[in-house]
Amino acid sequence: MRLVGRYDIVKKLAEGGFGITFLGRDIMQPSQPLCVIKQLWPHQASEPRIRQFFNDEAVVLERLGKHSQIPQLLSYFTETQNYYIVQEYIDGQDLSCEIETGKRLSDRTGRSYRLPSEAEWEYAVELGQRRRFILVRPCQRM
Fold it and tell me: In this structure, how many other beta carbons lie within 10 angstroms of the beta carbon of residue 110?
């Protein structure tokens, strides 16, 4: 499936209460990089309040994506009455697969992790927005 003549859907990554997330490919770039495509569920799109949450997510992503450690917003559009957000794809392990309730991630992995610095917190707070997440189903452990 191709969206707006530019983004090919490669596979489904996850789904949740507000929508579905796909791995995509931007065929209009020379390297055809991977991207993440979030689609608002069509039955949710008829609700003005839900559409506004989705729009707010795109606005916040556009502002936050200017930070080096946050995926960049690539596009926000509607097609055939469906709403989409396209973000930069960052390769890596799904964090929900790494976290065990009540356990320290550093104990499990043997690696050190840090909280955001004061400057990073200030950057987020200055934007004056609260980020709404599209929740996905829990990771399947092997």
Answer: 6
